[in-house]
Design goal:
The chain is an alpha/beta fold. It is 35% helix and 15% strand. Strands 3-2-1-4-5-10-9-6-7-8 form a ten-stranded mixed β-sheet. The longest helix is centred in the last third of the chain and has 11 residues. The radius of gyration is 19 Å and the shape is globular.
Length: 313
């Protein structure tokens, strides 16, 4: 039986995530479904041609997109406790209500329990994240993701990615550390003063917790679901996959301990390519702030780029 690296029962350190403590994920239509041909029509022929095509083909079911298997696994968590759903997925789309009918027809065809949506007809959708109470926004539109992050929400651009092998029954989510789960305070030292200075600083500050990054609340929301199950029976498995190595590992472990959250697996790779490790973990999605790392990982597993922190200045 695998033991959790950190499994602290103290729940009092977790921030409030909503009245019912559900994990609420907002997703764009291009992340959920394969709209590559339709998007090409939009870029080459304009909005009117795109909307006309969508309306003319609204009974033609869309193929699953990169994040479709992830959404299926997220919604499947609700079957474990139907009286108290633990996850909600909703749609935030730049489609109009008229052109968005095809999206909902496809949702109904696949039996996805998605009932809430905002169709903004080309306007940025991030302003609806807070009213919906969403913890996470996933989109194929990099500009929308940046706006959401700048407004203080967890968000990631879904990259064209290799599909997950999906061989594990539980939901498996992997995170980079600095500028994703944690702030970019340590990464700034690495970028500006070099790796040796980074290791010196992290060793000296090992007992000083890192500040939270944009995905801290996502990790808390996952932890709240995990906490309802024994570690060996949890329907969710998380991993920290970081370029850090000893001695910089200690501050990360003690930070998570202070936060009172559980990370099931922690991989300190010392700069090794993350892709093979993510494939071995079986990640349903991986989040990384550095574009080159995200693109490399996307050759192995579905990947979200988090354009936050010094690496994206």
């Amino acid at each position: 039986m695998s033991e959790a690296l950190i499994d602290t029962p103290d729940q009092n350190k977790s921030p409030i995530l909503g009245a019912d403590d559900r994990l609420v994920v907002a997703i764009s239509s291009r992340a959920l479904f394969d709209l590559s041909a339709e998007h090409q029509i939009f870029e080459q022929q304009g909005l009117d041609a795109y909307q006309a095509f969508q309306t003319a083909n609204e009974d033609h079911i869309l193929a699953p997109g990169i994040a479709f298997p992830l959404v299926q696994k997220l919604l499947r968590l609700n079957s474990l406790n139907p009286q108290t759903p633990q996850v909600e997925v909703l749609l935030l789309s730049r489609n109009s209500g008229n052109s968005g009918l095809r999206i909902f027809n496809s949702i109904e065809h696949y039996g996805l329990d998605i009932v809430r949506a905002a169709f903004t007809n080309g306007a940025p959708p991030h302003q609806y994240i807070e009213p919906f109470g969403a913890n996470l926004f996933l989109s194929a539109n990099a500009a929308d993701v940046r706006q959401a992050l700048e407004a203080g929400y967890a968000a990631a651009s879904i990259l064209p990615s290799q599909a997950s092998a999906n061989r594990h029954p539980e939901l498996r989510i992997a995170f980079d550390g600095d500028a994703v789960l944690f702030s970019d305070e340590a990464e700034r030292i690495s970028q500006h003063e070099g790796l040796d200075r980074f290791h010196e600083t992290e060793k000296a500050l090992a007992h000083q917790a890192l500040s939270g990054g944009p995905f801290r609340t996502v990790l808390y929301a996952l932890h709240r679901i995990q906490a309802a199950y024994p570690a060996e029976q949890s329907p969710i498995r998380t991993a920290l996959v970081t370029a850090r190595s000893a001695p910089a590992h200690k501050r990360v472990i003690l930070t998570l301990r202070e936060w009172g959250v559980r990370i099931d697996e922690a991989l300190f790779l010392g700069g090794r390519d993350k892709g093979p490790f993510l494939a071995a973990f079986g990640a349903d999605i991986f989040f990384d702030d550095q574009r080159k790392n995200a693109e490399s990982a996307s050759r192995y597993v579905p990947t979200g780029h988090v354009p936050h922190g010094v690496a994206n200045s």
